[in-house]
Amino acid sequence: MATKTIKKVRDADATRARILAGAKKEFAKNGLGGGRVDEIALRAKANKRMIYHYFGSKEDLFRTVLEEVYTDIRAAERALELEHLPAREALEKLIRFTWDYYLKNPEFITLVNSENLHKARHLKKSEKIEKLFKRFVSMVGGLLDRGVQEGVFRPGIDPVQLNITIAALGYYYLTNRYTGSIVFQRDLMAPQALEERLAFNIETIMRLVCVDP
To answer: Which residue intervals are the DNA-binding region (predicted)?
Structure first.
């Protein structure tokens, strides 16, 4: 009996994971409005009944996908173990990580864009998101405080403003890469252009934060 119960739980977890993976791809491609439950079911090798059983509705499934992508990036940030590094080195590592994460996970940006179109109505219902960001802001705040103690960072920098700026430097560049490549007449996604942009991002943040950039 116990073995059967364990198998059912594992099967349920596997099905739920497939549905989330399929929903992530579908919503990233077509947004909430254009995303189709039939297509998600096809991607997940599940049926629509199972989707509604596990997630209740398409809206709730979208909210869960958002929670998952935010959980993933926050978990990856914690894995950097920035608290064990000198503050300046830790900040540069966070800047590099954010840039690389956006490049390797383009669906994160498209999903965030989609939720902004809906004025964050799904995230407003999520207690999970609030907890995730409290921990993240605390982590960045601790990094800044450590830098002040080490004599390398200016005091009084708001960790929320800093995070917004780090994110914005990469976010805007990548979300506007197609129009930007035409307007500025350069391939913004060429390897050298990406390296130059990362170097610019690091220099910009360091000049903002450091006592002696």
So the answer is: 36-55
